[in-house]
Amino acid sequence: MTFHGFSSADFAVFSNDGLDERMETIQNRIQPKFQEIGNELVDYLQAILGNEMFLHIAKHARRTVNPPDDTWLAIANNKRGYKKHPHFQVGLWDDRVFVWLAYIYELPNKQEMAEVFLDHQHDLEHMLPADYNISMNHMKKSDDQLRDVELNAILERFKNVKSAELLLGKQFAANDPILADGASFLQEIKSILDVLVPIYQLSLRTKA
């Protein structure tokens, strides 16, 4: 199958009330698109990184009452899961698509990775475009851009606060025309990954 892009109907799944109804529409409308996107990106990342990468599509299995406000795919270097590893995400809220390099609170070596980033903060500032987005909580929307934040303070918080996360990447409003063109959007995602992969590789270094 070929990814043909996202439409307004995809974002409308979040207007469905109730866990079962929303999950059914996510599974029927969104997850097949995630599979198509993920298959393409796994191949792309494996070629760049030279090691096997694995696609995970969010199942929202822990939810019993409240329906999910967003949904995503994740790609990590671990077959069993992604939350304890740096990973790449592509996903949807009701008003946007996000492409993230994500470091979430379940990382066992979060402090060590934060120290590597702090040691290379100057490099990070040059690697990341000023209009890229940054977030410290994957469960909340964030419109913050690199140009508007104090990166050192964010990295210190990421290091010292157990619940603090770090997500770097780019977001697209639901009405952005590029989302409706599957081939163009896939190429845009790959361009974002080209920026994020060196940061991913940096974070895997151990502190000297």
How much strand content do the residues show?
15-25%
User: CATH H-level name... which superfamily?
Assistant: Protein of unknown function DUF1054
Rg is 17 Å
For the biggest β-sheet, the strand order reads 1-2-3-4-6-5
The H/E string reads: HHEEEEHHEHEH
Helical amount among residues, as a percent range? 40-55%
- What is the number of domains? 1
Task: Describe the fold and architecture.
- With 208 residues, the chain is an alpha+beta fold.
- The protein contains six helices and six strands; from the N terminus they run ααββββααβαβα.
- The chain has a six-stranded antiparallel sheet with strand order 1-2-3-4-6-5.
- It is globular and about 45 Å long.
- The chain has helices at residues 8-11, 19-49, 110-119, 121-127, 151-160, 182-203; strands at 54-57, 71-76, 87-92, 96-103, 133-135, 166-173.
- The protein starts with 7 loop residues before the first helix and ends in a 5-residue tail after the last helix.
- The protein has a single domain (8-203), classed as BirA Bifunctional Protein, domain 2 (2-Layer Sandwich), CATH 3.30.930.20.
- Strand 3 (87-92) and strand 4 (96-103) form a beta hairpin.
Précis, in short:
Helix 2 (19-49) crosses helix 6 and helix 3 runs antiparallel to helix 5 (151-160).
